User: Fold these one by one.
Assistant:
Number 1:
Amino acid sequence: MPAAPPTARLAALAVALALASTTAGRQPDPPKLGPKLPDGTFTLPPAAGGGVVLSPDDYAKLQAQIDQLKKQLAARKPGPPSGCAVRGKVEKRGDTLVAALSLKVTFRTTAPNSAVALGGKKGFLVSAKLDDGPAPVLETAEDGLVALVEAAGDHTVTLELECPVAGRANKAEVGFELGLPRAAITTLALDAPPGVGRVSLATRLPDAKTADTRRGVDVKQLAAQPGRDGYPVGPVESLDVTWEPPAAAPPTEAALTADWEVVTVIGAGFVETAAKLRPRGPARVWKVAAPADAVVTPERVAPAVGDATPSDAPTILRPTDAKKAVWTVEFPAGTSPADWGLTAVVRTSRPKSDDPTHAGPYAVGPFALLDAARQTGTLRVAAAAHTRLSVRHGPDVRQDVPPGPATDEAVSFFRFASGAAGPAPPPAPLAEVEARPTTGLVEVRPSYRLTLTEGGWRVRAELKVTPVRRDLETLTIDVPADWRAPAVTPPDLVDGVEPGKDGGPRRTLTVRLAAAHKQPIDLVLTATLSVPPGASSAQVSLLRFPGATERDAAVTATVADGLDVRGAAREWDGDQPAGWGQPLAADPKAAKGPPAITGRTDGGLARVDLNWSPDRVELTAELRAEVTAQATQVVVTETLRLRAPEGFGKAVRLRGPAVPKGLKTSPPLTPAGPGEWTLPVAADAKEATLTATYALPTRDAAAPVDLLWPASATRVESIVRVWNGTADRAVGVDAGPWRELPPEPAPGRDVLPVRTLAGSGSDLPLTLSLAAPADLSGATARADRGLVQVWLGADGTATGRARFVLSRWPADGIDVSLPPLVSGTVVKVAVDGNEAPAGVGPYGLRVPLPEAKAGRTAVLDLQYQFAAGGWRPLAVPELAGAAVEVVRVQVTAPDAVPLLLGGHPEQRWALRGFTFAPYAPAADELDDWLLKGIEPKWNGVALHAAAVRADGPVRAAAVPLVALITACSAVVLVLGLLAVRLPGSAAGPVVTVVAGAVAVAAALAPQPAGAAAAAALPGLAVLVLVLAARALTRRAARRRVTHLPGFARGPVADDATPRPTPSVKPRPVPTGSTGDLGAAASG
């Protein structure tokens, strides 16, 4: 059956304690107050002469439960209700005004025993009811009343309150103030006093940052109307209603209120009560009800102002009638009563402990401020430790949790509140207290854990020892004689163990503690119990604790996987185990671990009878694992298929690596210890599949690989493929019990595994060996395209950016070898546009890459700076162990012409405008080629950029454009003019030599030769112009010679006379002559 709610149990236990306290002899003179319970609880008193007798053990149980329930109630945080409707009217009671209010609070609870705030602060509770039924269980909090509702659902609590109407300081207004529960829907309906036409509403929201709001409201808006709950005020926590009284009526004086703080201390030979009074109000004469034998003294609670003298102190007049003791306090003129308080101390002697009246009762008070509209206060009763306090009080007093930290004293704390007090003193004291010493006891809650091992049953008894109203220094334990090597820990609590006399079925151990304890402590006793080989049953006797109360004993028995265990637990029947046992049930936690049974009882356990037998289910497993060796770890991806023809029956236990990194499984596993997990499966399921991925660390050159194995499988068949995911290591396998299979390709991988292994059985060892190979000629990575872009600077440095499109790479990343860089250069590394955390690798930088999949590519991006110019080699990164198909290098010099040696130039001559020059691919064209594979169209900038296909080192130099054009043009112009001036016999060889040199230069350095040829075009144009001008000049000279004025030149007549041979060799015809001697002579 369901457990009773905490509030109901608290009420029942409080009733029992109150009834128990009435059994002892008491004096018949005090008034019959009877047991007082919190508001909303009730009890049926016993018949006349009846009573309830509790043993110390029962009383201790009840007291412990009450303390626990009090803590639970104190820890509850009440929630606000959904609605609060306030209806009220202002009534006149004698000479004072009182606001009679009715609060209708509606709310919904989703769980039993919920706490709901009701408000009501600064109001006096008259009555309360829950759902038109009995009164609810109410608690007093700082913000007002709190209702404890047992059942979940929709509820309504109706509170009847009264608030005194008092004046406002420095204002001609009167009103009242009431705390509200911050309900979202809060309304007010008020019947104002006659003659009042408008009231002022001041509200305060829970948010401390929001200022208080004040608004004036016509009384007609506050009047109750059909179909309307009232005037909405919002989710406020405080409501202050004020109005100006009618002019004809005299102003209402502020009500006199009192706040008390009463402390009663019960010592060994005295009882002292100190009551501090703090009145509030304009009254200049206080009438205080206090015992006639009290010592009453005034106390200034506010610092003196101005020239205050001792004569300003109030005058205290002692009571004239001891039976109706009323003290009078009068204040002289010019003295403010608000600056003073009053302290009354009553001290009486207490009879000796052997006197029947030593326990009391002792009266507290009465204490009251007469003619006060309201009185509130606290009552604290304290006594020495291990004292049971019984406090009887009236309905205005309510017990509460003592504020402040817990102490060793016995303390009872109360709050009280009462309405208007008349002119007569109270007829009864505030409370009556009885104090009786309690008999101390020790409670032990044992929890036994029995584990079957090869040597027998291992017993672990966890003892929670609680001293009740006494100091715990030693604990006596009766240990069964067949328990071997009992030991008690922990050593910081246990000072020593003293064994008793041996003999009989039990021996006594006295545990001596290192210090006396008043709070609960935890001890652990361990021992072993031998079991004969082949035994399948055992009777395990358990501990006993002489002089202590044993309760809430529990036992759990665990056996190994593959065994079935059953048993029964027997309680004590006197000094012997009971004749019948309580069967132990399967432990719910055993589904995640080894088989276990458990049981619990309210008292102690004497013996456990256990039986166990093999219970093995036929279970086969197929294991496939992909083992990838990386630089610093081994990644395992495992698929485990389990089959049980008769059903699994329970969860499957797995064994594996002790600390796998990043273990991810589907379905999720439940940890059962270091290197152990359980796979939850349905009891009637016959097949299950588990996929797991995890990583294992490598240790130098060896990497042990622990797989996930089913612990209870009858047959396991395994296939393991080993892959090399590194670029700088060779992976080997120590076959051991494994047999090698032909290489088996895997979908999504374009390489074969290093080894493919097969094995039969469980827990087969597998060890990988990692060694650096002699060379890295075998490529483990592939780059389809590479682009290196270099920007030459004027300071002798260059900025480089190298990108590679990878289509295959090792699982743990790739090593990048960089040439010498500029000191302090930070290499920026990115993969697919995202910054990558590069580390130090054996060949330079180790760049982590994403998981390689079929058809997937990755773009590796490196940015760096290096020294360039002067025909130094360009810094082109190298990918270790990678085959790179094509690498293009683009060099740009913004203010110069880059000259490249090495590689295959990529340039095309084209006429664009008036420029005929070699053009390299543009940067955006090279980006398209790198990322998309689109060949460039050579639309770059002439001379300032150059590109080559790199198949080796590429050297670069930069020459200023103006200097290059000037030099090349001058060389062409000079060589052309010299060739023209040479004789015909020398011109041919010279031109041939020059042409051959140009051809050799173009073959050896095609890119610089092309740049020089483009730079020489201006000189060639000048040379052509010079030669053209020369030819025109010579033609003009010949024309002038041929067409001299006054001469006519015709054809020469044929003359057959032979000409004589001249004796003188004719001289050479000078340059510019026609060569006609006759013409020369005639001229």
Note: Helices lie at 6-21, 56-75, 219-222, 923-932, 961-981, 984-1004, 1006-1042, 1077-1082.
Number 2:
Amino acid sequence: MTTTAQGIINSKNTRIDATLTPSPLQLQIRQHAATITLVMPNHLEKGTTNKQTTEAAFSLMGIEGQLPRGLSEADILLPRKLVRPGNAALLLVEVPLAATFLDDRCNIVCGRPNCRSRKWLTSGHGLASKDTVQVGALPYQWVATSSALRPDLQFWLPGQPNATMDKSSATIAYTFGDFGLPATGVSVIERGPQFISMPNSLVVVSSTGEPAVLECIAFGTPEPNYRWVRGKTFDEEVLPSTDSRYSLINGRLIIENPVEAKDSDSYRCEARNKFGTVISSSVAISFGYLADFSNVQNAPVRAKAYDGVAIECSQITYRPAVQYQWLKDNAQFMRPEFQSYIFISNNGKLYFSEVTRSDEGRYQCIAELTGVNQFTIGTNQPPTRFSLPIPLAVSDQTPKSNWGPEIQNDFPAVFPQPPLRGQDVRLECFAYGSSTTPFYYSWQRVGLPIPDSAVLQDHNRVLIIRNAQLEDAGTYTCTVTRTSSAKDTRSVYLSLGARPYFVAPLKHQHADIRGHLTWKCEARGNPSPVYRWYKNGHPLTSDPNTRVQVSKNILVITNLDASMHEGMYQCEAVNTYGSEMSNAQLRVLSFPPSFSKNPLPDQMSGAVGGDIVIQCNPEGAPLPQITWLRNGGELTTGTDGRYIQYPNGDLLIKTLQSSDAGTFTCKAVNDGGEAESSTTIFVASGAAIATGPSAVSAIVNETAFLQCTASRDPTTDVNFVWYFNNYPLDISDPTFSVVSETQASSRTGLYIKGVQFKYEGQYTCVLQTPFTADSKSGYLTVRGPPSMPAGLYVRTESVTQTSVMLMWTVGADNGGAVVSFIVEAEDEFNPNEWQTVLTVATKDSIPADILQTDKHGVQVDNLNPGNGYRFRVSAQNEFGIGTPSIPSDFVKTLDAPPSVAPSNVRGGGGSVGDLTIRWDLLDRSEWGSSSVYYRVYWRKKTEGDNEGRWQSATKTGTDDHHVTLVGIENFFLLYEVKVQAINPLGQGPNSSIEEVYSAEDLPLGVPTNVVSNTYNTSTIEVSWTPVPDTREAARGKILGYQINYWPQDLDNRRKDEWQFIRYYGDDVSSGLVINLATQVNTWVGVQVVNSAGLGPLSEQYLMETAFYPSWHYPEEVRVSSVGAGQVRIWWRGILTTTWEAGLTAYVVREFLLDETND
């Protein structure tokens, strides 16, 4: 008895058939995997081990003694127990999607379309028809179809169980979507919408006045229409009619003058046409802010010379993230690339590996708003804030010899937190130690190499992993060395989170009416994602009335009906870091058989004594039944003899005879009708190409296969030679692999691995014998991203101060309609830095005054005046983004006044009577002309509406500060300042008005009530009444107080020999003087400090440090009871020396026995 298991798999019009003799093996087809169900023979009794069962099962498939490579016993799904002899036991072996065979013609099982004439063997080792394998006493034989896949191209991976599809299934996934449609060309095939560009979340900085822009791009035929919705349930449509600030241009949503109260929300894009609706992943518009630093002065950072130290940035609130820079003494930016002992971490701190007195100063932290994770900042000029100065005070100590390295406790550190897949992940390392000899930093990953995408920066102290992936996780070790023996090592474990991403996205499904569909999507993420399903934009759940069952990432639909089930389906994977959508179209088909796309060849040739296979591959739904005719009469076929019809419908004629010449007709019949296609067989002596190369399509980077099979007498020697566009093909190139009959495979032909556009063309197979030759040709079409646009130029008459009109000719679409163009720009002052300035839909890129359909153009706005630009354009289709065009020639925008104002306007410093104003110079690209200069404005701040008159001064284009004399009497007064950039064409905008103080004068106030007390034998405590924090007394901002001290025997006038210690803070009223000698008299005096210097010295106070405490302790302690609740204590007292303080008392302490004497 023979059992044939048939089914339609998710491939390109592909049916997989298998025949077994006798009947215990069933082949079941799954949506994303194939499952072999083996019914085990009777001799496998109870107690049989998993391994024995496994080996017996694979013996059936031609492998003796071991499992296929990569497949473990854990991958074999056994029943809970083996049944008793005489019954069957099931053994399931699964081939997951990731482990499908490298055959170029099938999508899932083989890898590309049309597997109908391929033998499908999970082991990769087929049995000849005459062979049998003995398992116990039962013979099993694999009959199947005509040819096996190349064993050396097959591989195995462990898989996970999937829901099965039984043989009544009829699911076909034709890659280019034209199954059952007229052969009118791929680019005009009608199809549902599919996103090729999803919107991104956006952080709006409202003060910039820039619009908020969200954009999605979808392709489909007819052209999709777009709709934007928002809200928690996405039930509110965003329409220009509801708010004039909104505008919609295709998939682009523009919100002018965004307002947090109105526009902060979750948004979703919808694209629809007559086939259904798809929805984008949800994105958010949020509003970033950067608060001001606190006006409370930070405590000073104190360090000893030659030690390491860190200065922490003042606290500031922000959203979503900030990046840091540091400024010293209001003038000098910290540059770690030039000062290797300094390091600025992403945690905001400024580190010194070793400080000296030269590092003393006032440091300001600068915070700039930036984006993080999926958010981008919707402005080119994010806000910045300057902290109040943070003093660094360095006290002297004896220099240390070479010490360190000692990796600081904050390191190694990982940024951002948490690190996510796709981000540039930054690992930092920094060590304290002597800077007299250089430190050398190196990185390793324990057990694995450093990722190829990683780069080192900042003296190798920073390791950046570009576009980090989950496999980049691991333990990273930082090693710092100074000499061959001095080093320190620390490690950090990098664990990456990941928003979901699809490893097995949905594929378009073209299914038979009344069929059964199992659809599966597979996404990865960390944490693992959960799944939701949608149909035409609406949530989809299990419903027995519609015969739909949803189970996590698997969707099952039974008894398919076009009116109920056709549409656009989406699988959404969601975790804590976001969501991702995969969408595909379901078509439920019912149409009569057709050979319009796959007719039988007009004629075929075979050799006497050879074999020939006639392939029959009609389209039809439901699956047509195949019968064969010879010269108009019915042909009797079987599973043996010379005429064998395979379960997939192909006809094998064995041992050809001259009488086999004639016309053979394949007849296909289903519920909708019938169709026929015929070929004429010619039989000759020698050898001939029975099946030659045909027209084949492949996608870039896939594997293509061109078949070339010989029909010959077994005694005839043959040789295959291949030509490409009539030139001999270089078979030594590893891109090409020729499979011949000597390789134990009837799938003979040419494999082309990693197909590129340059491989498109005509391939000719030449069959050579000692006496004759035969040849046949086929054309390989390569599909993929569009070719580069050509002839890009700038319309000279369109050039304005801020815009240009670009024109180009569209390149080849390479099998996928171009849906958008990406425009990039490079300016003359930042060479090789290409910035995307515009993405435009194809239909919006055709100017109204251009009649040629291949000409496209677009206006590029928001350029800087007076700059040289060049541009390049890339095209995008369903296969991806193509190669950028050759850049245009440089074109200079018209000169104009500067369009931006100087930033970071600030002040402070200088001598008494000075007003110092500083700013950041404009970038060269912002000048608007060939030169620029600055005008600085200032006026004294007044109360009320009585504003003073602005005074001004002009500075050159290289000046970044201005100092003006306002008079000694105007010390420490508040001024309003602003700065403007000007070029020969006019004035640019003024900066925002900032408030700065004029220079401070030396303080006049004197600390009073100076008192000193003994603290211990080497320390005294000094206290005082602070100076009033007024302009008249402090004559500036009080930074702190300086305690001066000197021995009593030192002349008071020798101030250069005084020692001092400073305490920072405007309200400090006491401090300690340490490291004094014991029993010495010391003079102390206090001065107030501001940025101009020291105030007058206070009254002087003489203080003596304390004697040493007692050096001995009482001995011979005795305790005796003298009654209830009373004891008498006796001890031997002590004597003191002249160096010890006088004895004043003894202290007696008591505690319970079970307590600790503290």
Note: Residues 602-682 form a domain with the Immunoglobulin-like fold (CATH 2.60.40.10).
Number 3:
Amino acid sequence: IHAKIIKGSKEAQFGYTVQQHEADGQKWLLVGAPFESSGEHQTGDVYRCPLDRKPATNCTRLHLEKVSLNNVFERKEKMRLGMTLASNPKDNSFVACGPLWSYECGSSYYSTGICSRVNSSFDFTHSIAPAFQRCETYMDIVIVLDGSNSIYPWYEVQDFLINVLQKFYVGPGQIQVGVVQYGERVVNEFRLDDFRTVEEVVAAAKNIDQRGGEETRTALAISVARTQAFKHGGRPDAKKVMIVITDGESHDSPNLRKVVEESEKDNITLYGIAVLGYYNRRGINPEAFLREIKFIATDPEEHFFSVTDESALKDIVDALGEKIFSLEGTNQNGTAFGLQMSQAGFSSHIVEDGILVGAVGAYDWNGAVLKETRQGKVIPPKSSYMKEFPEELKNHGAYLGYMVSSVISAQHGQLYVAGAPRFNHTGKVVIFTLTNSGNLTILYSLYGQQIGSYYGSELAPIDLDDDGLTDLLLVGAPMYFYKGWEKGRVYIYTISLQGFFIPDGTLGPSEKTHDSRFGAAMSTLPDLNGDGFSELVVGAPLEDNHKGAIYLFYGQQNSIQPKYKQRIAAGDIFPGLRYFGRSVHGMMDVNGDELIDLSVGALGAAVLLWSRSVVRVGISIHFEPSKINVFNKDCIRGGREVSCMLATVCLNITPRTPITDPKTVGIWLDDKFIFILENKNHLCSAEMVSYCLFTQEVTDYTHPLIFSVNVGLQNADEGPVLDDGWPTSLQSELPFWNGCDNDDQCVPNLVLQSSSDLLDRRQFCGRRERSTWPPCVHQRTSGERLVEASRRKVLVEARLENRGENAYGTILHITHSANLQFSSLVLKVCSLEKHPDLIVFCVSFGFSVVLCSHFVSFIQVYFRLEFEFSRSVFLNYVQITLRVSSEGEEMSPEDNINDIYHNLKYEMFLLKLFVLQIQNLGMFPVSELLFTLNVFAVTRNANALLRLSDLDITQVKFKRLDLVMTAVVELSPSSPMFLHEERPMRHIILEIRKEEEYRIPIWVIVGSTLGGLQLLALLVLALWKV
């Protein structure tokens, strides 16, 4: 893998985003580092890295953390600048966003996000903050302070002023304060734009001394504050508030009505504070004074305050602050509070007329999509999303705008696409239109299938054929759970001509991977393999135990190939890489080889992957002669005459993508180096290699010889690669010449002859001992074969002769009757007078087919076929049919069949026992055997006395009687068996005894008793002596 690693700070998350960029006539890689620090603050930043093949690359920090908005008290700490990058190839500008950029509003910080627009010279041009709204505290407040002699003590008024100022949120984008003191004359103590912090204002207030004066000219003071104080340092779009503090009736009260009306025309909100200390100290009725101050207040119910004396001013400080901040600063369009935490810039996408940004935190984290154009910001109203993001699901936090993109549809033109990965926990993608007037219309919605899959967190539209119309929309679900692992998945949607988004399958990582986060990053690439279709790269940053990997998928007609073509793991590049594939981008030739290269982000690194050219190698083979003539021995190899031929292999190289260095293309053929392509200007280069071939001991002349050619690159690690969709091997057939007059068809004349070794009557009876046997005495049907009792097999001798042209694919078909089993075939003799070196080879397939190699003219082959008699099937005949066939058109098909058929007579070999048991000692089963047993009573001289018809032993007066019986064995006339005698007879003597009652004799009992007594006496005597 050809790669270059650009290293950066892991702590700064260098490599979180990558973007190829061209500016100043040079190619760069923009690398986001959203955790980069600027001094003590972690602001984030973007680096630019020159793209070349130099071993080392020095990246330059752009210091975009200087991005800012005027008149805003901003907070850049952890704003994550560089978290998103979007490059505009039309003007070579780019946008970098920090979605957590915040600004202060009162006591809160609003994270509305900010983006920085950078031109082709890497100069910051302007800030983009579409979600930014003016604070509620964006006010110009002028305090009109009565400093006449009647105010006493002055420090109480001064303390009140300081306490009130400390309640104000003074700063850029918030409150500006000016103080006017009056008595007989009016003096501007400080202007609205003199101080920018509370501390500065309070310090200035401490230095205000009482001017004094005999008169209280309140109308003049209001007029000066309106005409001068709000003009000097005032902001035209800020809310104007005037606070009048006095302790007595004005000496120019006739002018009050006029100055109050003029103030109201200038949209100045007036607050009146009446200090009654002078009246109380002198016991004067303050009614007229109070009416005057109420008249000055814009709303007497809300904007009027009165205190008993100067010391009581401190009691209304909090109330005054609450009144001012609760009534002022609201936005009439109702979006001010909905976009306070929008985090605009969480995603960004450059469109034709501006920049589309995702604002995931808008509207209680349901999210929104905003747009910045040259005419200004475009903020769709919240109601635009209500149908697809109903109010009852607002607590789910859909995060709409997590990713934004656009597609070009033939039906609708440009459509915007936004992902909401947490919608209803399963995720959602919406396709919509957005006008510059803020009218947002959602046309289609796509839904995730699994809870927590983060469907819609990544989007990738693809124009497969570069016709200007988007063909596919790919939606990532990197947390998709499959088979117990968080593998990730990418959904494919085809965009029809009618503008519909049709599901068209999914993509996934390798089956061997576990937690991959496949789909966390995606990027489309221009055509890499020369097939005219764009490709897709998908990142899986958690694969291989968080080392990461990327997957390359090839495009095809109307879709993406479902199986990835290449998987590049971090370990294949550098073992220390982690989270490789967290961001991917590829759109330009980085190293000048006219091939699109890929940039991949990792933790603390950006990796450049150089693409390699794709070539196709065409293979063709030519044989001379075009057919093998085994009858023509034109070469001598190893002292033998053989048939030779010439094989010429032609290779053609066709580059599918540009090749800048042709000498890197080395071709090998079957492990042999062939050539190097020398001229890159040739679209096709050819090389021919010749081989001399010869045949040796070929036994199968029917099927052609197969030649296989395999090609490859000499150095698989350098230079181009072979097109994996193009074959790198070729099989070609070289047939044999059939040796016949007609090259397409031979006309053989196969003649088959056969005979068996079964004995006919003459052969069987030729032996003397058989001459008296019944089959030899009685003449029966001719053609019968006699089977000896000892025979187990039948042998068939066959001869096959070819009296015509060569026969190929000669097959001997063997069929036989069921009482035979095929045992073997033996090639006995092969007569090859004209071709003594030609080998005839036969092989048996099962028990019915024998296939032989080609039979040349006048060849004779002798076969011996062996069959065994079956022990389970018995027939009175035998049949063996031999049939020969070949691939040619037979001249005389009638002599291709031999049918051997014989009626059989089987010799019986019976052993007769006098136990009245007849045992068949022959091989063949005996049927229809009639056994006759005649029992006669005869004398000792064999004279018959009677024929026994019944026997009753109890009527016979003898103890034993010998009976002589006669046994005769006869065969049915239709039986296929024969005996050695016509009608064999045997006499059997039976001994018959009458059953008697048996008792023990008396003398045995008496003798046994006496013997026992004698033995007992001897034992007693022996024991007595002892």
Note: The longest helix spans residues 1002-1025.
